[in-house]
Design goal:
The chain has a single domain (4-157), classed as Nuclear Transport Factor 2, Chain: A, CATH 3.10.450.50. With 162 residues, it is of the alpha+beta class. The protein contains 4 helices and 8 strands. Strands 1, 2, 3, 4, 5, 6, 7 and 8 form an 8-stranded mixed beta sheet that branches. The termini are far apart. The protein has helices spanning 14-19, 35-48, 79-85, 154-158, and strands at 4-5, 58-66, 74-77, 96-100, 103-108, 112-123, 129-141, 144-152.
Length: 162
Amino acid sequence: MPFVENSVGRGKSPAQLEAGAVDPGGRDGRGGYPRAEMEYALNELFEHWDTSYVLPMLREDFTLKVPTSLPYGGVYTGRESLTKLFSGTPGGGEVWESFEVNVERVLQGEDHFAVQLANRAVAKATGKEVILENLWLFHIVDDRIAAAQFYADTAAAFGPRE
């Protein structure tokens, strides 16, 4: 199925999302979320680093994969892994002097969302500004977010590995 780029209105609170108030019919009987709500939550996550919309949409066994070539890379499980990663600058002050996120687009597929980012950052180790193109792939199971994989050009950020 081809990707479909969507646009979602703003203004729903995390409580409204949790209560299913965005869609007049509410969530389905399985506790899933409409795709428009998921898209909105992902936009809020990356544009404002606000996890409150997306956290209720994550499955209990949610898995997050971050490239191991990043100082904060690894495989993480549970909702708290996403909360921790989005609680401040990725990797904390030890990695970046500054980090600005720019959402290029959110694309929806049949069983996934892809979030394309073009971030501007200054690496603490070099003091040089870099543009980091990233892709986050969110896998959807039963209308909930089951997993996320983060793809990054780590060579652009930290130089080629020796």
